[in-house]
Amino acid sequence: xxxxxxxxxxxxxxxxxxxxxxxxxxxxxxxxxxxxxxxxxxxxxxxxxxxxxxxxxxxxxxxxxxxxxxxxxxxxxxxxxxxxxxxxxxxxxxxxxxxxxxxxxxxxxxxxxxxxxxxxxxxxxxxxxxxxxxxxxxxxxxxxxxxx
Length: 148
Prior knowledge:
- The protein has about 150 residues and is an alpha+beta fold.
- The protein is about 20% helix and about 40% strand.
- It contains three helices and six strands; from the N terminus they run H-E-E-H-E-E-H-E-E.
- It is globular.
């Protein structure tokens, strides 16, 4: 096709293997990568789960690694909310000491999670291994209520 060569030489046009013409929405492909004054950067919205993880890791003084986070919705006649079960890994003697502080402080900690009230914060399980590679895995359980 004579027309095929002309389209392929233009940067905004292409032919598919079936001879169907496609056109780019941008006149200049490089222009799509330059931010304009009016363009906003996409910033993902932080979820309640993100905020719970962040609050727990701050309480752990940044000395823990997140292993798992499970969230389950629940409701009753008067309340609705979520139950979060978070497993944190404290590796090394200094981290384990921070983990012990985490266990002691969790039940009385004042959480600030917008739109949520932390009704209960408990330790579900602790696996503490002593020795040269001291390690402690802590499972924290939080019950959140949606604020009306």
